[in-house]
Write a structure and sequence with these properties.
- The chain is 43% helix and 19% strand.
- The protein has 358 residues and is an alpha/beta fold.
- It has one domain: Zn peptidases (Aminopeptidase).
- The strands form two sheets. An eight-stranded mixed beta sheet has the order 1-2-5-3-6-9-7-8, with helices on both faces.
- Strand 1 and strand 2 form a beta hairpin.
- Helix 3 runs antiparallel to helix 11.
- It is globular and about 70 Å long.
- The N terminus is likely disordered.
- The structure holds zinc ion.
- The site of zinc ion has 7 residues, from helix 7.
Length: 358
């Protein structure tokens, strides 16, 4: 993730060094000259071309373009490499620390959220504070524990749920580079497979604290398609939030097929953030499906040692990651980046003027 920041920093360094200005003629002549000739000066022409490009690409498009399918794939592989992430194993502890270290590397403030379930376990929470309405909180969450028919030693949990966890991490890596009106929390939930234990504990504590959670997006199994191009994402939960996700997906990721399910569904970590259980909050659950019936004909490797990374559809998962990032950025109120080309224009004008030596 540092790679992304480095690329951005390099790009800024590279364009922040206009040629040094030469001798300056009378100010009035400077202005007339700039008006008359500036458009044909190479540095200014380049500046205007870049500026037009910047205007053409919206801040949201720029943000979504930063999401990397390669990084997403790396996260899935790294999570599977722990062997098992079953709640009471060393692999689970390693995965907990991996999430904390990774989120911390994005410059986010990270907290390991302890709860008791046959010992002390942890959810991992990273916070990006909002600049305008910091008390309004939006969450993207995914459970990182896994299970299988051999949970103590072999539970790769690639689709369930390295796929959602990797999306949460990749979205955190990009959104952490931007500013938002409201606060965003990126959360890895633990012990989901034992009955939503970690998310239940988190939501209960958040209600006691009085956290104003407005919207919660939960991703759980978002990367299996059985090779079907007709695969869609089921988006289930509070109506306004489901509608918002589907509208943002249609706008920014038109290649992603979605299906809305309005209501109060069990089955994953959105459950304790639903409006009926957390006053003021709304939540949704994004999950892949290959059939019109949500629970039939889904991943045949579900909860087996064969739920491995090589069986996933990374193109599909990337679209779900983009749609989730767009919805989260839309909800939290993306504040456009400082318009770098606008800041550079005076320098480019100076450069063009400076070269006009009589
Ligand atoms: Zn799951």
């Amino acid at each position: 993730m540092l790679r992304k920041q480095d690329r951005r920093a390099d790009a800024r360094r590279a364009i922040r060094h206009p040629p040094p200005p030469g001798p300056s003629p009378h100010p009035k002549l400077q202005l007339e000259s700039a008006m008359r000739k500036s458009l044909i000066r190479p540095p200014l022409a380049l500046g205007l071309a870049l500026f037009s490009g910047w205007l053409a690409a919206s801040p949201m498009t720029n943000l979504l373009g930063q999401l990397s399918q390669f990084d997403y794939q790396d996260y899935v592989g790294n999570l599977q490499a722990f062997g098992t992430r079953y709640f009471n194993t060393q692999g689970n502890v390693k995965a907990t620390n991996y999430l904390a270290d990774t989120l911390n590397s994005f410059g986010l403030s990270v907290r390991q959220d302890a709860f008791d379930y046959g010992g002390t376990r942890y959810n991992v929470e990273a916070t990006l504070p909002g600049l305008v309405t910091p008390n309004q909180i939006f969450i993207i969450g995914a459970h990182f524990d896994s299970t299988s028919n051999d949970p103590q030693t072999n539970a790769p949990g690639a689709d369930d749920n390295a796929s959602g966890t990797a999306a949460m991490l990749e979205i955190a890596s990009v959104l952490s580079q931007y500013q938002f009106a409201s606060t965003i929390r990126f959360i890895g939930f633990n012990a989901e497979e034992q009955g939503l234990i970690g998310s239940n504990a988190y939501a209960a504590a958040a209600q006691v604290r009085g956290d104003t959670i407005v919207g919660m997006l939960n991703l759980d199994m978002i990367a299996y398609t059985a090779g079907l191009a007709t695969q869609d994402l089921e988006v289930m939960g509070d109506k306004w939030l489901v509608d918002r996700f589907i509208a943002d997906a249609a706008t920014y990721v038109p290649g992603l097929l979605t299906q809305a399910w309005y209501g109060d569904y069990y089955g994953s970590d959105h459950y304790y953030f639903h409006s009926s259980r957390y006053p003021g909050s709304s939540s949704l659950f994004g999950i892949e499906d290959t059939a019109t019936d949500i629970w039939s004909n889904s991943n045949p490797y579900y909860h087996k040692t064969t739920d491995t990374a090589d069986r996933l559809d990374y193109g599909f998962a990337y679209k779900v990651t983009q749609a989730s990032a767009a919805t989260l950025a839309d909800l939290a109120g993306l504040i456009p980046e400082p318009p770098i080309m606008l800041l550079l224009l005076p320098g480019l004008l100076l450069a063009a003027r400076g070269r006009r030596v009589h």
